Amino acid sequence: MPVLVASDLDRTLIYSAAALALTMPDARAPRLLCVEVHESRPLSYMTETAAQLLTDLGDAAVFVPTTTRTRKQYQRINLPGPAPKYAICANGGHLMVDGVSDLDWHASVTVRLAQECAPLDEVREHLLTTADPEWVRKHRVAEDLFAYLVVERELLPEEWVKELAVWAENRGWTVSLQGRKIYAVPKPLTKSAAMREVARRTGADLTLAAGDSLLDADLLLAADRGWRPGHGELADAEWTAPAITALPERGVLAGERIVREFLKATR
Q: pTM surpassing 0.90?
């Protein structure tokens, strides 16, 4: 029976320059591999050690990149190791099989969203009318499934985020603050549902997962074992559960530790 490894990407396996958290002396900093280029600029990294471990993991397990990124944003990433057969994009809205979205899966997700929560247009309108242009840099809709804002984090009022979370909760939506982005995501749109579908298709009898944000909590709870790094929304909230290991490492070294733990559990 194969082992399925579903891992969040940003700030879990891969890191922007701002999120690396290289707190050690320069001479002891790990060597880094660039795994994403955007508009001709390097954007995301992992340690070279993590890259080798991920290559080994790809040979030993069914590795499923699992992200809130859109398909287009995901396809910019060039992870080391064998190309994953499955990937989960748009927080579970798209199940990619050999690089192509499974249309039946996407259709079933959109039906469920229409039945169970307020429409995207209502949420988008609320974001547009309540967010202050002073601290909002971009308004975005992702894959016609959810919305997010890019903000100046130091200017963002904490009270506004709390009020938005309550407003969204009453309409079947979740709010998550990750770095400079605030996501509003329908509750039925989950990484865990897509992970269960991949487990069903592959016959996996052991599922492993990792993630750092509120949007990863359902994924971690659905897996047999899960890990979270020492940074991010879940760490800030001291969130945990019986099968979850809270790692002390922060930044890119947490990513390396997570792949090491996946490989150890797989073997």
A: yes
Query: For 41-69, b where at least 16 C-beta lie within 10 A, e where not — what string?
Result: eebbbbbebbbebbbbbbeebbbbbbbbb
Please spell the DSSP secondary structure of the chain, one letter per residue: -PEEEEE--BTTTBEEGGG----S-GGGPPPEEEEEEETTEEEEEEEHHHHHHHHHHHHHSEEEEB-SS-HHHHTTB--SSSPPSEEEEGGGTEEEETTEE-HHHHHHHHHHHHHHS--HHHHHHHHHHHS-TTTEEEEEEETTTEEEEEE-GGG--HHHHHHHHHHHHTTTEEEEEETTEEEEEETT--HHHHHHHHHHHHT-SEEEEE--SGGGHHHHHHSSEEEE-SSSHHHHTT---TTEEE-S--THHHHHHHHHHHHHHH-
State the chain's maximal CA–CA distance in angstroms: 55
Per-residue pLDDT of the chain (267 residues; tens, 9 = 90+): 899 999 999 999 999 999 999 999 999 999 999 999 999 999 999 999 999 999 999 999 999 999 999 999 999 999 999 999 999 999 999 999 999 999 999 999 999 999 999 999 999 999 999 999 999 999 999 999 999 999 999 999 999 999 999 999 999 999 999 889 999 999 999 999 999 999 999 999 999 999 999 999 999 999 999 999 999 999 999 999 999 999 999 999 999 999 999 999 999
